[in-house]
Amino acid sequence: MINILPLSRVPHARPACIDWAVAEWGAATGFGPADWEVELARIDAHPTDEIFVALIDDQPAGMAWMLENEGIETHQHLTPWLSSLIVDPAFRDQGIARALIAHVEKYVTNGGDERLYLLTETPAVYFSLGWEAFDTAPVNGRSVFVMRKALAQPRVAQTA
Ligand SMILES: CC(C)(COP(=O)(O)OP(=O)(O)OC[C@H]1O[C@@H](n2cnc3c(N)ncnc32)[C@H](O)[C@@H]1OP(=O)(O)O)[C@@H](O)C(=O)NCCC(=O)NCCS
Predict the structure, then answer these.
(1) Of all protein residues, whose CA lies closest to atom 12 belonging to ligand 1?
(2) Is residue 155 scored above 70 in pLDDT?
(3) For domain 2-112, which architecture applies?
(4) Is 94 helix (H, G, I), strand (E, B) or coil?
(5) Residue 97 C-alpha to ligand 1 middle, in angstroms?
(6) Residue 4's closest CA among 87, 123, 114?
(7) Which helix (H) or strand (E) holds 20?
C-alpha cells in the first residue's frame, strides 16, 4: 500500500532522498550528497517548504517537494512550486508519481493557493494530469518548460 508522508515523519527515508537527487541531478547541478543534505536542511528549517516521501510497505519509493520559491530568476513572482519529483527506478510505472503530484496539489490547495507551478524537461508526464506548459526558463544552461495547474478550491460550507 502507498503511504505519503512528510520526510520529518520518516527520517529513515533521508538517505534514499539524497541518493535519488544525486542520481538524477548530480551531473547537471554538480551537487554531491553533502550539497543535497544542505538543501534538505534548508527545507527542514523553512516555515512552509516540505518534502513528501512515498512509501510502499514502509520502503521509500519516491519523493516530491513543495517549495515557496524554486529559485528561478526569471520566474521569482510565481509561487508555490512542485519540485524534485523522483520515483525510484524499482517502483516506476505503478502510479507513484501520479500519487505524489496529487498529494502536493491537495496540500497547496488546503493551504489556500489557487495555482501550482513546476519546471520540467518532460512535460508529457504532467499533461494528462491537467497541467499546461506556458513558458520556458533557463536552468543549468538548458531551456526547460514552466508548467502550471489551476487548482480546485476546497468547498466552503454554506450558511443559510
Ligand atoms: C517521471 C517519473 C517521476 C515517473 O514516475 P512513475 O511513478 O513511473 O510515473 P506514474 O506511474 O505515476 O505515471 C504517471 C504518468 O506519467 C507518464 N510517464 C511516466 N514516465 C514518463 C516519461 N519519462 N515520459 C513521459 N511520460 C511519462 C505515465 O505514462 C503516466 O501517464 P498516464 O497515466 O497518462 O499513462 C519517473 O520516471 C522518474 O523519477 N524519472 C526521473 C526524474 C524525472 O524525470 N522527474 C520528473 C520530471 S522533473
Answers:
(1) 95
(2) no
(3) 3-Layer(aba) Sandwich (3.40)
(4) coil
(5) 6
(6) 87
(7) helix 14-29
Give 160 Cα–ligand 1 centroid separation in angstroms: 45
Residue 153: pLDDT band with limits 50, 70, 90: confident
Phi, psi angles (nearest 5°) of residue 39? -65, -40
pTM over 0.90: yes
pLDDT band at 152 (very low <50, low <70, confident <90, very high): confident
Cβ atoms of 46 and 92 closer than 8 Å: no
C-alpha closest to that of 65 among 40, 95, 90, 41: 40
Q: Is 2 in the pocket of ligand 1 (CB under 6 A)?
A: no
pLDDT, averaged across the chain = 94
- The residue whose CB lies within 8 Å of the most ligand 1 atoms, and thus the one to mutate among 72, 125, 126, is 125
* 118 touches ligand 1 (CB under 6 Å): no
Q: Is 58 in the pocket of ligand 1 (CB under 6 A)?
A: no
Residue with cell 450558511: 159
β-bridge mates for residue 120, sequence order: 145
- The 10s digit of each residue's pLDDT in 88-102 is 999 999 999 999 999
